[in-house]
Amino acid sequence: MSSLTFASAHQLARMIRDREVSAVEVLDAYLTQIAKHNPKLNAICTLDEENARTRAKLADEALARGENWGALHGVPITIKDIFETAGLRTTAGYIPLKDYVPQQDATAVARLRAAGAVIMGKTNMAELAGDYQSTNSLFPRVNNPWHLDYTPGGSSGGSAAAVAAGLSPLDLGNDFGGSVRQPAHFCGIYGLKPTDRRISTAGQIPEVPGMPLCIRHMMTVGCFARSLEDIRLCFSLIAGADLRRPDVPPVPLDRPSDRPLRHLKIAWSDEWAEVPVAAEIRAAMTAIAQTLSGAGVEVESWLPKNFDIANIFNLYGRVSAYLNIYAQPVDRYNLRRSLELLFRTATQGDKELRKLGNFTNFLPELLNPSLKGYFEVLTERDRFTAYMDEALEPWDIWLTPVAATPAFTHCPPWSAVDVDGRSYPHAVANGIYTIPFNLSGHPAVIIPIGQTHSGLPIGMQIVGKRWCEMELLAIASAIDKVVGGLQHPPGY
Predict the structure, then answer these.
(1) Rounded alpha-carbon distances, angstroms, from residue 67 to 59, 71, 112
(2) Alpha-carbon dihedral of residues 424, 222, 174, 461, nearest 10 degrees?
(3) Among 58, 174, 79, which residue's Cα sits nearest to residue 124?
């Protein structure tokens, strides 16, 4: 294991700034790691070695002249292939975009470049961000660095696998239904989904270039790292208003209160009753509550009153149907892919659980969308957000599982998933613990808390108040110091 490739981004930035190591040397270490391990992981789908070398060399020359580009000066990073990168192929894993080379960076990418980052390449993903695994028709499937027979999750599986395996210290992802949080959980790293509209989505697919901006709600830009300090740094660099997205409000970053854990009031849930988690996840969640309580922290088992997960999941599906229906061209390829998804969610998994995850419930919105119906579901979403704001007000944070299962073996897209011998519909197993907070817009951070008996990572979701990401990250850091769950996969 290279000390450089498993150093955090902020540590690398300090080392480069203090001239302990050059940006070129750091890049070389990562390129060596990529050459050694990416052929079996398929985490990076487009490598931009030549331009990265040029940028790293310029970073070293700038420092020699006394210039500093910013907080990530000379630090190599990767970007999920769903974000446009000027002059660098951006495909979103979608065949019609296989040769698409954008002229402009996505806003979040531009802000990382402006902070001095060196972009090494793009990370592999689910096709058009449409699955909880990371497979598409352009590149080989992404494998989990903890066990190659297992998925790293999706849709940002390449991002999480790259960071976990030391191919990158920092990666930019997006989250519409868990696409940052579930892969972070599956790969044993840290991830953040911020408040809805906290970060500009300008330059982000799955709206195929040339299509109108449809996904105006619930889609967030997040990040992956091997430390919460890196998550905080990345978030602070990319958050904020953007002229390309006038609907991103100019809300300043909050200031953390820095209260000790023993002065906080923490809510805790080990599972939703309707959708039990795997026994090892439940045990890990219980152990966290006991550890925090033993450290003098007030932790209370809690669920919001009238928290109806079936209604929440159904409302999310209806909003999603309206947002996605015009985001991509209607062609034979997309139609076939969509019908396959609908068929599997309607026919696979436990019959009772299918009532939660059956996407055919949303066919009226897909087949006969109306402006009135769109406004109605948005109004219902507003009510849910207000309900969650009120429910969370007495608590500083809420601890929940991330998914019903740890990483599972590769399977056909949207196939049912086994959870302790019970067959769960794909969307239910993977999204039932993340989707409520896309619907409500609340921020959530993932921290690793342990492993299964077979050595697969287990993460925990920490939910905070809207627009309070810095407070959330500060509390998550304090909890992380107590539970200390980060480990690196063996052999990297």
Answers:
(1) 9, 12, 17
(2) 10
(3) 79
Nearest C-alpha neighbor of 434 from the set 308, 302, 312? 312
231 & 277 share domain = no
Select which of 8, 159, 168, 179 is catalytic: 179
Question: Tokens 């990529």 correspond to what residue?
Answer: 34
Q: What type of residue sits at position 294?
A: G
Q: Tell me if 192 sits within 8 A of 235, measured CB to CB.
A: yes
CATH number at residue 371: 3.90.1300.10
Of 446, 457, 389, the closest CA to residue 196 belongs to 389
- Tell me the C-alpha distance between 416 and 70, whole Å: 46
**Per-residue pLDDT reduced to its tens digit, 89-137:** 999 999 999 999 999 999 999 999 999 999 999 999 999 999 999 999 9
* Residue type present at position 57: K
Q: Would you say residue 480 lies in a domain?
A: no
Contacts of 386 (CB under 8 A, 6+ apart): none
Q: Which residues span the domain enclosing 28?
A: 9-238
For residue 103, being part of any structural domain is answered with yes
Q: 131, 120, 121, 119: which is closest to 94 by C-alpha? A: 131
Q: Which of 22, 80, 269, 440 does the annotation list as catalytic? A: 80
179 flagged as catalytic: yes
155 catalytically annotated:
yes
Active-site residue (options: 134, 155, 168, 227): 155
Nearest in space to 16 (alpha carbons), one of 2, 26, 7, 8: 26
To 5 degrees, how large is the angle CA 365–CA 368–CA 370? 80
Residue in 61, 179, 177, 45 with CA at minimum distance from that of residue 120: 45
Number of domains comprising the chain: 2
Q: What is the mean pLDDT of residues 282-291?
A: 97
All residues at 6 or more sequence positions from 309 whose CB lies less than 8 Å from its CB, including other chains: 272, 274, 275, 356, 432, 436
Angstrom distance (rounded) from CA 413 to CA 255: 42
Please state, in angstroms and rounded to a whole number, the distance separating the CA atoms of residues 461 and 458. 10
State yes or no: is 372 an active-site residue: no
What b/e readout covers 315-344, taking b as 16+ CB neighbours within 10 angstroms?
A: bbbbbbbbbbbebbeeeeebeebbeebbeb
Contact between 318 and 362 under an 8 Å Cβ cutoff? The reply is: yes
**pTM greater than 0.90:** yes
Q: Are 138 and 93 in contact (CB under 8 A)?
A: yes
Tokens for 194?
């911020």
Judge residue 100's burial from the number of C-beta atoms within 10 Å of its C-beta, 0-12 exposed, 13-18 middle, 19 or more buried: middle
pLDDT digits (tens, 9 = 90+) for 125-181: 999 999 999 999 999 999 999 999 999 999 999 999 999 999 999 999 999 999 999
Q: What span, in angstroms and rounded, lies between the C-alpha atoms of 23 and 8?
A: 14
**Contact of 220 with 251, CB cutoff 8 Å:** no
